[in-house]
Amino acid sequence: MSRTLxxxxxxxxxxxxxxxxxxxxxxxxxxxxxxxxxNLMIMLGRPPSVDADACLxxxxxxxxxxxxxxxxxxxxxxxxxxxxxxxxxxxxxxTGEPAREGMLNHLALVVSGLPSPDNPxxxxxPDVGLGEGFRDPLPLVTGVHREGPFSYRVEVSERGWxxxxxxxxxxxxxxVSSRPTEPAAVLAAHAQLSTPPQGRFTRLxxxxxxxxxxxxxxxxxxxxxxxxxxxxxADLPTYAAxxxxxVGLGLALGxxxxxxxxxxxxxxxxxxxxxxxxxxx
Length: 281
Description:
Blueprint: H1 2-10, H2 21-34, E1 37-38, H3 40-43, H4 52-62, H5 68-82, E2 85-94, E3 106-112, E4 124-125, E5 138-139, E6 143-147, E7 150-157, E8 160-164, E9 173-177, H6 183-194, E10 206-210, E11 215-219, E12 222-227, E13 230-235, H7 239-248, H8 258-277
Antiparallel strand pairs: 1-10, 2-3, 2-9, 4-5, 6-7, 7-8, 8-9, 10-11, 11-12, 12-13
Helix pairs in contact: 1-4, 4-5
């Protein structure tokens, strides 16, 4: 439980929570507020471990986790420590239809035993590893689920569930199933995702935070905000502006050498200029 107490303190929660639906909502929101989705250490050439204990310790110590394998692994341990009935599921985030049944690239969780009037089956999908995802855990009930300006669709089946992202998002959907998610499978997928030059998390720095009304993203050297007012974007043409944007999204940088961080911005700005010259395809 000590590992969980450190995590809760990082989230601004000073006491263990009872395993209720209200607690799950509170925990989910606090995590999204304090621990942004990011691939910083991968971009610095030091991919963080996907061992669940290491992920949880990293959140408590540094306030960083990483991408979905890290974020949801940490959350899974916390939920278990607090007494929730939680299981992990194989997820595949996809954009083009041919990739819909692809590799393990997302670790999903399902919490059971929490019935509500709108979800009598009591199964919920908490997910703090989507970056631009939903603010509150989604009920695993087929239908459209709305959160402010965003609309999501879930289709539940015997094998798992399908998720359709809001049209403003950077991906189309997720297929969730009971395919393998044991540590060896997660480790192999992590190696593929975080090893350059092919790894999808090795190309651009991405930092995202979902708040009460919208989503902020720093992708490379562009800061975007999507909320009920639409989408606003601004380039980050200086190291100072870029660093300020990262800190503004809650990314903890106190243990990162400034020269190393500056070198990363220079790489991102060079890529940005090439993208700009190509017409921002």
